[in-house]
Amino acid sequence: MSRLPMVSTDPADPALKAMFDEVRARGVQVPNLYRVLGLSPPLLRAWLDFAWPLRLHARTPRKVRELLILRGAQVSETEYEWVHHVQMALAAGVTQAQIDALAVWEHSPLFTPQEKAVIRLAEELTRGPSASPGCIDSLKQQGFGDADVVELVLTGSFYVCVSRFLKSMGVELEKQ
Q1: What pLDDT is recorded for position 94?
Q2: Cis status of the peptide bond prior to 129, with omega within 30 of 0
Q3: Which pLDDT tens digit goes with each residue over 42-72?
Q4: Per-residue pLDDT tens over the stretch 3-50
Q5: What's the rounded Cα separation, in Å, for the pair 21 and 124?
Q6: SS3 for 63?
Q7: What is 5-57 written as a DSSP string?
Q8: Pick from 11, 18, 1, 80: which is nearest to 39 by CA?
Q9: Eight-state DSSP code of residue 61
Q10: 94 and 145 together in one domain
Q11: Same domain (yes/no): 21, 97
Q12: Which of 63, 76, 125, 153 registers the highest number of CB atoms within 10 A of its CB?
């Protein structure tokens, strides 16, 4: 159960209502995560302004970013994040077999060397405190440029924040 109340999906606050309408305009139902973040509208605004560009305007392939997010959710045992991103991963080209093999990625032939470098990044960032120099070098060796490395590390780090917030607040999955 959420440790804090969730705001209504139809809030009276016009600024909050506009943010929820913005989310719906992207074809997404307002998730419980946003309903908890909505207790602080300025921070929800900042969250949306940071999260959505990471998702929609990144240079790196969405497929590898979804593998990054899923492995982070798996390592952190954050069911909410996992459930939300499985469908996004499948839509981005991750196969169900890859999702099923994610826990044993190091020994799986289902992942390319580039995907393994990104999954390693997810693991190191999530376990903390940071990605190792060897991990960053591995990303570069797999063809990721400096801007790509920044984007991947920032994305992975953001989703560590997501999982820690979700678990700290006890945010529950939406009822299906």
Answers
A1: 98
A2: yes
A3: 999 999 999 999 988 999 999 999 999 999 9
A4: 999 999 999 999 999 999 999 999 999 999 999 999 999 999 999 999
A5: 36
A6: helix
A7: PPPPSS-S-HHHHHHHHHHHHTT----HHHHHHTTSHHHHHHHHHHHHHHHHS
A8: 11
A9: -
A10: yes
A11: no
A12: 125
Q: How many domains does the chain contain in total?
A: 2
Give the pLDDT confidence of 146-157 residue by residue, as tens digits.
999 999 999 999
In whole angstroms, give the CA distance from residue 25 to residue 95: 28
Q: Write the DSSP string, 78-135.
A: -HHHHHHHHHHHHHTT--HHHHHHGGGGGG-TTS-HHHHHHHHHHHHHHHSS---HHH
Select from 140, 162, 160 the least CA-distant residue to 36: 162
Q: Please check whether residues 121 and 52 belong to one and the same domain.
A: no
